[in-house]
Design brief:
CATH architecture of the largest domain: 2-Layer Sandwich
Low-confidence stretches: none
Strand order of the largest sheet: 9-10-11-23-22
Shape: globular
Number of helices: 12
Number of strands: 23
Bound molecules: zinc ion
Largest sheet: 5 strands, mixed, barrel
Radius of gyration: 25 Å
CATH topology of the largest domain: BirA Bifunctional Protein, domain 2
């Protein structure tokens, strides 16, 4: 197997090589940007789905599934939304040999599929809040270079859509989504910033958009999720109205929360190293790989490995026992590239004693057992997640840099933090200077110590300046 390129020598080449070497996806399918989930990659995807489901359902959201095809007539009801998606949608115009009376859009996102039905579901204030989510594939005709997990045309997509009785309730839902995402990100051990996007960069049809961004590669950022407040922008055209307690009529306020397989790309990007992928236990396809080393021990190590594998599976862990013919060194190498959090080596001595030598993906080695091996494995995995998060946090804290002049924006290896007056003209000046994007205003405290923002980097005004972030999005 060829060596991987070094991460420090070029992020994207390294990323593509790791995804390939770890066998997470097969990009040889005959449609560009539509990749095949391999058995190994699919396990990661299923585990990611489970994290999202657990956290969103804990906040009172319910699963639904809407059809993938949306009639053009519904798709066109919200003007900004259509404008934003026109160049990205796939159309279905024929059924068999018959031209369809109403062409169908293959969902790029599901507002326009769900909202005509929300109109039917919601009658009274007693029907609110409506908090529903689905995990489905969506389709967008990407014109930029596609990359596995990061930019694809068929997207494994999580979308929550909610209807609230008013602005305050919708704002509270946004806060609840931010809390749910914080817990998901902790499970993935991925630090991030939540930023309110500038008005010119919000989701088509939104009142405001909060994006969840991470620093990646060479001074770039990756948007890994979004939360939008729509106010009445969709409920008016889709007539999602309810009877208020005093007998009046009101339009619902709506929010959405979107995540995707990009989170898996983020996990690879953030934790991976020059030896391959590194998965946190929450989304690792296999959390534990057991390698029996037979030597003079005959069948004992293999037998103990199988028994231990079963015991760990009974505890709900994802475990693979590698009984292939390869030498132990080749097995270690393979599972290291694949990013398995914990390897248990079992030689004749371990098999006899009922112990295992545990080596985590960061290289920490310990002997576990013989008493309560299962609990020790779980504890070791949780310790590994903590160590992974600490490592990621330390890199994250070092990924930001304050810039005070426009000419400092272009050449830096970090995400720029700068003072901005909030005016669009200055925002565009900043974007031109960095040849990238003004990412927006932090919703939560930034990971670096910051004082007063001082004068705007664009116009030198001190009136109403706030700290803002800018970078070249990946
Ligand atoms: Zn300014």
């Amino acid at each position: 197997m060829a060596d991987l390129p070094a991460k420090a020598n070029g992020f994207i080449d390294w990323y593509l090589a790791v995804v390939e070497a770890a066998n997470l996806t097969d990009k040889r399918y005959g449609v560009k940007g539509m990749n095949v989930w391999t058995p190994y990659g699919f396990l990661a995807r299923r585990a990611l789905d489970a994290v999202m489901v657990r956290e969103i359902e804990a906040t009172g959201s319910h699963p639904v599934e809407f059809p993938a095809l949306i009639p053009q007539t519904e798709f066109q009801k919200e003007a900004e939304h259509i404008k934003g998606f026109t160049t990205q949608v796939y159309w279905v115009t024929r059924g068999g040999a018959t031209e369809l009376d109403v062409p169908l859009v293959l969902r790029p996102t599901s507002e326009t599929a769900m909202y005509p039905i929300f109109h039917l579901w919601i009658r009274s204030h007693r029907d609110l809040p409506l908090n529903v989510y689905q995990i489905v594939n969506t389709f967008r005709y990407e014109t930029k270079t596609t990359r596995p997990f990061l930019r694809v045309r068929e997207i494994h997509f999580f979308e929550e859509h909610t209807c609230q009785s008013g602005d305050d309730q919708a704002t509270a839902r946004v806060a609840s989504n931010l809390g749910a995402f914080r817990r998901m990100a902790e499970a993935l051990a991925v630090p991030y910033v939540a930023l309110r996007r500038p008005d010119w960069d919000k989701f088509p049809g939104a009142f405001y958009s909060i994006a969840l961004d991470i620093p990646v590669g060479e001074a770039r950022t990756l948007q890994i999720g979004t939360i939008h407040h729509y106010r009445e922008n969709f409920s008016r055209p889709y007539e999602i109205e309810y009877e208020t307690p005093d007998g009046g009529k009101a339009f619902v306020h709506q929010t959405t929360f979107g995540l995707s397989e990009r989170l898996l790309g983020a996990v690879v990007a953030v934790h991976g190293d020059d030896r391959g992928a590194v998965f946190p236990p929450s989304v690792a396809p296999y959390q534990v790989v057991i390698v029996p080393i037979s030597g003079k021990g005959g069948n004992l190590p293999a037998q103990f490995a199988e028994r231990l594998g079963k015991r760990l599976r009974d505890r709900g862990l994802r475990v693979h026992v590698d009984t292939s013919e390869d030498r132990p060194g080749a097995k270690y190498y393979r599972w290291e590239i694949a990013g398995v959090p914990l390897r248990l080596e079992i030689g004749p001595r371990e098999a006899e004693a009922g112990t295992a030598t545990a080596v985590d993906r960061l290289g920490h080695r310990s002997v576990i057992g013989p008493a309560d091996l299962e609990t020790e494995v779980e504890r070791t995995l949780e310790g590994f997640r903590g160590a992974l998060f600490e490592k990621a946090l330390s890199a994250f804290r070092g990924a930001f840099e304050v810039a005070t002049h426009l000419d400092q924006l272009r050449d830096s290896t970090k995400v720029r933090v700068l003072a901005w007056c909030g005016q669009e003209a200055c925002g565009h000046q900043i974007e031109k200077a960095i040849d990238g994007a003004l990412l927006g205003l932090p919703e939560e405290e930034l990971p670096i110590p910051l004082g007063d923002p001082g004068p705007c980097i664009g116009c030198s005004s001190t009136a109403g300046t706030r700290w803002a972030l800018a970078s070249r999005p990946l």
